[in-house]
Fold this sequence. Notes:
Layout: H1 3-6, H2 20-24, H3 27-30, H4 35-54, E1 60-65, E2 71-75, H5 92-98, H6 121-127, E3 129-138, E4 141-148, E5 152-162, E6 169-176, H7 188-201, E7 206-211, E8 221-224, H8 229-236, E9 248-254, E10 257-265, E11 272-277, E12 280-281, H9 287-306, H10 319-322, E13 326-333, E14 339-340, E15 346-347, H11 350-370, H12 372-396, E16 426-431, H13 433-442, E17 448-453, H14 465-468, H15 472-481, E18 498-502, H16 507-523, H17 525-529, E19 533-536, E20 541-545, E21 548-552, H18 555-563, H19 567-570, E22 574-577, H20 586-594, E23 601-603, H21 609-620, H22 624-634
Helix pairs in contact: 4-6, 9-11, 11-12, 13-20
Amino acid sequence: MKETEEHYNASDIQVLEGLEAVRKRPGMYIGTTDVKGLHHLVWEIVDNSIDEALAGYCDNIEIIINKDNSITVKDNGRGIPVDIHKKTGISTVETVYTVLHAGGKFGGGGYKVSGGLHGVGASVVNALSSWVTVTVYKNGKIHETKFEKGGKTVQKLTIIGNCEQERTGTTVTFKPDIDIFDTDIYDYETLKVRTRELAFLNKGLRLTLRDDRDDEDTTGETFHYEGGISEYIKYLNKNKTPIHDEIIHLEGENDGIIFEVAMQYNSGYTDNIYSFVNNINTHDGGTHEEGVRRALTRIINNYAKKNNILKEKDSSLTGDDVKEGLTMIVSCKHPNPQFEGQTKGRLGNSEVRKIADNVFAEGFERFLMENPDAAKIIVEKTMTAARARAAAKKARELTRRKGGLELTNQWGKLADCSSKNPEESEIFIVEGDSAGGQAKQSRNAKTQAILPLRGKILNVEKARLDRILGNEEIRSMITAFGTGIGEEFNIEKLRYHKIIIMTDADVDGSHIRTLLLTLFYRFFKPIIEKGHVYVSQPPLYKVTHGKTFKFVLTDEELEEYLSTLPESTRSKCIINRNKGLGEMDKEELCYTTMNIEHRTLRKITIDDAIEADKIFEILMGEEVEPRRNFIEEYAPYAKNLDI
Length: 643
């Protein structure tokens, strides 16, 4: 036996007690310690208040960003129990905040439906905060307990005063621990998006968000929707053109599972279907969404055939046909949800599929029969989509590789890399002739492929797939990526794990980037979700003084760099502004934009797909007024544009 093995004994096994494990491995509990994880703490506490609302005991929740960047969450629920917990021997409030997996979510009759699936929210927030104060209003008394770094109790539950007998609820204030998180600065807009979403998903619940860091924000914003997810559809379709007036709202209950759907078709070509279970966004779908999609396809086909709109000689409509231009929210409240994966992204309960199918089919069939004009419009749209699908099938054949990558459009040609390993391969989507030529000369031919584009591609927000596949530049990208598109898309066939958009730092370059990102978001969304899409950040300036030079990305970085130089040198600096990639020689382009040791890339992410969709629709859709309003609102933030 080796000496190292002889010394491996019980003393080498570390046992983490209490909340130590959370601080040691925070990513296991909140996913990440970056800004996303920071905001996740808020929802862990808010979820507890939402659970009170789902149980019927709370109708008002306040979220406050305090001046010191701590967070306060108030609710008017029943208040966490204050009596001594039999198992722990301490107050139930302290138990909830210091013991993992302690809560009313484990079959003890506390909550029938809960969004906080694992019951670790309160204690995890406590473990990852510098301090936490919990105040409970109950039985005419105000109870308070306090914790400090790592969840250590510094004030046991104490009665600190009296309140009205009828007043109940819980107030929690916590300050995230900067030793754990990359930042402790909360973003108001990020909190606002989720707060509004929770209000839509819980009709009648009033949520208020206030930022006390802003002296002018004294009242905050209140979100309250008696129409629930029907009002969510109205909000999502605000910048679209509905093709029927009424928002279809269907709901039902079976075996304690509450199921709800709201939907409306619009004149666009993309679908926006979002599903939730106990307020959790199931972005990968699941059985609740599958049941609805199955019923949607069946009911529309049956209606079209029964009313002789779809003839016997016609092919049946597919799932893609019937969801074109559809905005839909699927919401399921389940007493015992089974999620697949750590991110809770997909519902796995098999019984939900049939319940969802039955509830949706019955309600949607009744709507079509009672609203023949709307039904005819909906069916005709789906049949137009079917005809476009057939045309797209023919056009798609042009994008399939026939041995090797002999890929050209009439203007440019892919310069592929020699590596066949996607993990090390990257493709640069380059704007312009001169920049494409320079990039080909500057690249590492083993791992870097170059695909030049001729100007601006088609705006896919305003086109169906058959027309999109008629665009040479888009066909070139589809073929180069290797994934296929539409119903044939397969992320496993992606040939490059870095797709890098490289355009000029001017308005035209920004427009081309937006068009490309719209294409990727609408038809290649998984490549963004998996982190494969990047935007190169070419330097805005080259600063030369003597034999020394430095490239800087922004005006702010330029000022910061110049301030570090002696004043005598500063006056002799030569500052060149790079307005186009083609203006750089191949050595400069390689050094600043392509060399992995020196370049700067910005990864494109979809933090909130619903809001991302809304922005794409505003910027790239048919409606002019919302785009004008958006530009007027955000124009003050766009500085030093090159026009």
